[in-house]
Specification:
mainly beta; about 0% helix
Length: about 130
């Protein structure tokens, strides 16, 4: 069973940047797509970005396209989310997830992910 731990969240002013990290342990995540989701207060958890098993293909929600970048380092069992030009509406708890099946392209449905981290809070002040 893989364990995921997110870090890098915090308080930032609108227009600023943050880099989230997701560390996987317990087994390798090589071969598995990875994703980031977020949940704002009182709202459902939404897809943010995902990356395929090799890192060669990515997919983003329209709301973050052009501002966020997902990447991974398979040798370190790490996934990252670089967030630029942050807006107040980006405020949420951000979750890292690993796909249930191997060798897939980028995924966007929660049901396609098997393991989740505990989340890291991102607060953007306007």
């Amino acid at each position: 069973q893989v364990q995921l731990v997110e870090s890098g969240g915090g308080l930032v002013q609108a227009g600023g940047s943050l880099r989230l990290s997701c560390a996987a342990s317990g087994r390798t995540v090589y071969g598995y797509a990875m994703g980031w989701f977020r949940q704002a207060p009182g709202k459902e958890r939404d897809f943010v970005a995902s990356i395929n098993w090799s890192g060669g293909s990515t997919y983003y929600a329209d709301s973050v396209k052009g501002r966020f970048t997902i990447s991974r380092e398979n040798a370190k069992n790490m996934v990252y989310l670089q967030m630029n030009s942050l807006k107040s509406e980006d405020t949420a708890v951000y979750y890292c997830a690993v796909a249930a099946k191997t060798w897939s392209g980028p995924l966007s449905r929660e049901a396609d992910f098997a393991s989740w981290g505990q989340g890291t809070q991102v607060t953007v002040s306007s």
